[in-house]
Write a structure and sequence with these properties.
There is one protein chain. The protein is built from eleven helices and two strands. Helix content is 67%, strand content 2%. The chain has 264 residues and is mostly helical. The chain folds into two domains: 147 residues, Transmembrane di-heme cytochromes, Chain C (Fumarate Reductase Cytochrome B subunit, Up-down Bundle); 75 residues, no CATH class. The longest helix is centred in the first third of the chain and has 32 residues. The chain has a two-stranded antiparallel ribbon with strand order 1-2.
Length: 264
């Protein structure tokens, strides 16, 4: 039984896709992002429209829009620093960053998956904890957040920078915000929430959990590792190198897809 409108199926087993800290970090980022887009894009609305809507309160509206935008930006920067510290100083964070590092197998899987999606091949690649699409989105997200934050700081403290630099940063800031809005609205929301089997949402953003059925279908290499560890645990295996690798462990599977494609 699949999830329906965010409710969890009682006959499903659930697996921790994200840690509690990662859930909090994700939610801080997306909430700030949505509100930053709203308050930022408002500055592009013709002043006459705003005046017609708010009348004598137009000045206050623009003032509080700026204040809200700056507060949200500060929260986003703080959340980004938290995420960076989490990735450096905690074991789960370091494992997540390791699992996000692109490798040659990602390029091979991307080619195989494109051919499969186009109906030009019957071979469907088996993904690990993060596939090439998720890695690309994460890396582009880091780059985009850095660009937005740096250009935003320059614009906020404009008197301390050359005018041409402030103007260039303003253009880059707007372009990056527009690109990020389009990318997240189409790529992220469809891939994570709206595609068949997930609509209307993937509730892992709430509690970090995904069904074992989802894990088996979307991340079969990770699912196989979980099943192997459970079987070894039942058999009383105590080998430390074989235990507690369910979250990551791409090091054992870099050549998996290539080998299977060769056997096809």
């Amino acid at each position: 039984m699949a999830k329906k409108w965010g409710r969890r199926a009682e006959d499903q087993e659930w697996f921790p896709r994200l840690s509690r800290v990662e859930v909090w970090q994700h939610n801080i980022v997306w909430i700030c992002f949505v509100l930053l887009v709203a308050t930022g894009m408002m500055s592009l609305i013709p002043t006459d429209w705003v005046t017609a809507l708010f009348g004598n309160y137009t000045g206050q509206v623009y003032y509080y829009r700026r204040v809200a935008h700056l507060i949200l930006a500060a929260i986003l920067i703080a959340g980004s620093i938290w995420h960076l510290a989490y990735g450096i100083f905690t074991k789960p964070g370091r494992q997540m960053l390791i699992d996000m590092i692109p490798n040659l197998n990602d390029a091979i899987q991307m080619k195989q998956n494109i051919l499969y999606m186009l109906g030009m091949s019957d071979f469907k690649p088996k993904f690990d904890r993060f596939d090439y699409r998720e890695k690309m989105e994460y890396i582009f997200g880091l780059i985009g957040t850095t660009v937005i934050c740096v250009t935003g700081v320059v614009m906020t403290f404009a008197p301390f920078f050359p005018r041409f630099m402030v103007e260039v940063c303003g253009t880059i800031h707007l372009c990056e915000a527009t690109l990020a809005s389009i990318t997240i609205s189409i790529w992220h929301f469809y891939g994570v929430h709206w595609k068949p089997g997930k609509f209307p949402q993937d509730t892992s953003w709430i509690d970090g959990l995904v069904s074992m059925e989802h894990l088996k279908h979307e991340h079969p290499l990770q699912w196989e590792r979980v099943m192997k560890e459970r079987q070894m645990a039942k058999q009383g295996v105590k080998d430390a190198s074989s235990v507690a690798t369910s979250w990551g462990g791409q090091h054992d599977h870099h050549n998996n897809t290539t080998l299977e494609a060769g056997e096809e």
